[in-house]
Amino acid sequence: MWFYIVFTVLIGYLLGNLNGAVCMSNLVAHEDVRDQGSGNAGLTNFIRNYGAASSFSVILIDGGKAALACLAGEAMLAPYGMPLEGMAIGGAAVMFGHDFPALLGFKGGKGILSGCIIAFTIDWRIGALILGVFLLAYLLTQYVSLGSVLASVAFGVGFIVFHHDNLVVMLCGIFMSALAVYMHRGNIVRLVKGNERKTNLFGKGEKR
To answer: Quick check: 172 and 8 in contact, CB under 8 A?
Structure first.
């Protein structure tokens, strides 16, 4: 069983190294999205620099790899009676690989899109919770980062509420929640100071 747990982590981590924003910025503009704007290899920075029209492919790549990692983990550990644990372990691994990709110099994204798909794959209730929190916060403030931080906290809360009876799943959920909040530490500081940028998710560039 331990072999399959390690294999699940390895597959998830390597899938996490496939970054949609980096792939599409190279394809669309022959440049690295990490050299533009905030320097982050995520959906928000991609939209700010290349517009929403090309973002579907980023969503498809990052969402697809997240779902695939969870399903691979489920397939690996289901024979041992641990399908949900396998999904959670695969999800945690793919998110870590997305944030710290060895194949991309450990400079990745912040894992919000991947986290959303992971949540929906493991438990649609948690997915609905974090998506609702994100959309509400963003639509009220136009701050993607605020919505992301609040959704990250809701992610952990959701796993505690719905999976407190499964230690492995709950701990993986808490780990992913804490990781997402940590990746937004710079945004949190800017939000507190009042100089965080607003973003138009349906077009290109920042909102003034």
So the answer is: no
Phi, psi of 115, deg, nearest 5: -60, -40
Three-state SS sequence of 9-55: HHHHHHHHCCCHHHHHHHHHHCCCHHHCCCCCCCHHHHHHHHCHHHH
In whole angstroms, give the CA distance from residue 64 to residue 58: 10
Residue 100 to residue 184: CA distance in whole angstroms? 14
Mean pLDDT (whole number) for 130-153: 95
DSSP 79: G
How far apart are alpha carbons 141 and 27 in whole angstroms?
32
- Amino acid found at 100: F
Domain boundaries, the chain: 2-207
- In the chain, the largest separation of any two C-alpha atoms, in whole Å, equals 53
Quickly count helices (H) and strands (E) in the chain.
Answer: 10, 2
For 158-169, how does the pLDDT look when each residue is reduced to its tens digit (9 = 90+)? 999 999 999 999
Give me the count of residues in the chain.
208
